[in-house]
Amino acid sequence: MIDxxxxxxxxxxxxxxxxMPFGDWMESFIRWARDAWAAGFxxxxxxxxxxxxxxxxxxxxxxxxxxxxxxxxxxxxxxGWKLGLGIGLGMFVVAWTPYWEETMQTxxxxxxxxxxxxxxxxxxxxAAAESKAVSAIARPVLDFMQTLPAFVYLxxxxxxxxxxxxxxIIATIIFAMPPGVRLTELGLxxxxxxxxxxxxxxxxxxxRILARxxxxxxLPTIMAGLNQVIMLALSMVVIAGLVGGGGLGSVxxxxxxxxxxxxxxxxxxxxxxxxxxxxxxxxxxSDRTPVARAAKLAR
Length: 299
Prior knowledge:
Blueprint: H1 2-14, H2 22-36, H3 38-61, H4 64-78, H5 81-96, H6 100-130, H7 132-147, H8 150-161, H9 165-189, H10 193-201, H11 206-235, H12 237-241, H13 247-258, H14 261-287, H15 290-298
């Protein structure tokens, strides 16, 4: 009986339905957009490549030994001398490998991608926290951005911008932005309503309440979101290397194709140490916010 019902459904219900050409529609749209908005895509390509190249040149302008000391000083200022010493040793190991230049290129790509993702995520998170309609629209879009495989991003992006570092940056922005939006919205929604009511009782405008009450109280959660944005941006370096993104991603992709264990290990070690640097420094800066300090004193 079950087999008969299944065969009947397949014969008369499912089988007659035509295949929906969603992929064909998307391909047609991408091809149309590439021709119709060519000037805009060229401007984006030029701007992102300009930021990436100049930041990479700036990071490589100083000798590696001086940069190691600067990274150690930054970590010391963010968290303390222990972190500074650890970061200094870690970056010294990176400088000892043959891939210091590629590491700085990767850091440049991560910083550019994360900065743009953060500039987009925070306003969107604020809008989602202040408006239920914006939140309802943003939630499925963010779910789509987070669950769609990263390789799928690269197909239309490469069609629009060709191969190179720019497709990697754009795919990284799309992949890394959702946590920033979600945690910004979460931090603002978790602000105590009584504190907001007190501000309203003193006649503060909504903009002033947002700037002087909500954002400072939500800053630790927002900083956690920024940390996640940076970490996700760094996790995309290998995938970006597959489309000519340069940096450590290209080294790892090339070593995978050649089965070069030494090159893959050195580049992977550099990625790990760079991730530790970015993670610990952003966490240290987050711990220095007034709300985080007050929470520590309350404990």
